[in-house]
Amino acid sequence: MSQQTNWVPTSVDLEKPSAARAYDYVLGGNHNFTVDREFVRLVHERHPDSKHFALQNRAFLRRVVLFLIEQGVRQFLDLGSGIPTVGNVHEIAQAADPSARVVYVDIEHVAVAHSQLLLEDNEHAAMVHADITRPGLVLNDPDTRRVLDFDQPVGILGITIGHYILDNPEGVFAAYRDAVPAGSYLALSHLTDDFIELSDFTEAIGHSQTAVLPRSKAEIARLFGDWELVEPGLVMTSQWRPDREEDTRETSEQRDGLYAGVARKR
Ligand SMILES: C[S@@+](CC[C@H](N)C(=O)[O-])C[C@H]1O[C@@H](n2cnc3c(N)ncnc32)[C@H](O)[C@@H]1O
């Protein structure tokens, strides 16, 4: 197919849109194909605020990493990290402290190939190609063990990822929570249909390689287990410690679409 270019691993499925490549397109990246761009247009037709979801989410990710750095966290496990784009976790964290350590995890081939390339010379960061619903594989991967010290606090990032876990997200996040010591944090953002009917949107997403399942605030709160949510609790992405005027302009529960929260292990 004419879309095949030299940066595309041979294992990539070019027939079906992928969440990682579609998200890359929405954020203004170049690692996507016609099939992904058409998919984004379809989703956008069904739900015009979908780009707003993504931009607010990425802004939340930046604020979370800076917040965790302020709290003294120097290690990050980024679950469902996506295709590297502006403002990756290691860039933000290592700008604050060059010794900060980051393990990225994703299942999508383009995301994995590009992250591996980007991190080639970065001995404090690694990309693990794995399904995050198999925590044992992620946590015992040799690269995870090489980069992260599980005796020290870890910032677990599950940013727009919980809604891709259709079965037992509580069990999946519990396994990650159990693997880290006191002083660790879990940050999540998660699609919700508490404020808006999303069945058209989720049906459209179902045409990609991964389905999504929006959840209620109570269901999402359970993913933190007994960890204590830091202020301001579980709120919409733009309401979580905003630090730029542009991130709070023209937002609403309906437009943000995702709950966001950060909790600490005592
Ligand atoms: C919307 S992107 C989010 C990227 C990044 N976390 C952010 O918020 O900017 C979701 C990512 O999750 C990945 N993903 C979905 N299901 C996954 C799974 N079971 N295991 C690993 N990665 C997964 C997709 O490939 C995609 O890159």
TrEMBL record:
One of its GO terms (biological process) is methylation. One of its GO terms (molecular function) is methyltransferase activity. This is S-adenosyl methyltransferase. Keywords: Methyltransferase, Transferase. It comes from Actinophytocola oryzae. Residues 241-256 have a biased composition (Basic and acidic residues). Residues 238-266 are annotated as: Disordered. SUPFAM superfamilies: S-adenosyl-L-methionine-dependent methyltransferases (SSF53335). InterPro entries: SAM-dependent_MTases_sf (IPR029063), SAM_dep_MeTrfase_SAV2177_type (IPR006764).
